[in-house]
Amino acid sequence: MAIAIIEEINLVEAEDESSSQEPDFFECADGKYVIPNESMCDGQVDCDDESDESDETCQDITCEEDAFRCKYGACVGKESLCDKVDDCRDKSDETDESCKDK
């Protein structure tokens, strides 16, 4: 299998179709990279085309019990909630509504 791992950002260059068929990877919509599934819908954009954080990709994700679900569906750690840092792409972790009980 011909893939190259870019360690700094956890991207795997998709040089052939077999790399996108790995069960633990998500293929970016532009086909340029595949990323580990755990990097998908985590509040951080890894794909150049941002498909790993899109509404469509993240809408059916189930968050861990200790995570906050962003309005678009991604999951970020509850410790990131209301910390004055936008961890969700849509900034839903810093809204008045999200922070009212904090």
Automatic annotation (TrEMBL):
Subcellular location as annotated: Membrane
Gene3D superfamilies: Low-density Lipoprotein Receptor
Keywords: Disulfide bond, Glycoprotein, Membrane, Receptor, Repeat, Transmembrane, Transmembrane helix
GO cellular component, as recorded: apical plasma membrane; receptor complex
Domain of life: Eukaryota
Main location: membrane
Name of the protein described by the UniProt record: Vitellogenin receptor
Organism for this UniProt entry: Microctonus aethiopoides
Classification lineage: Eukaryota, Metazoa, Ecdysozoa, Arthropoda, Hexapoda
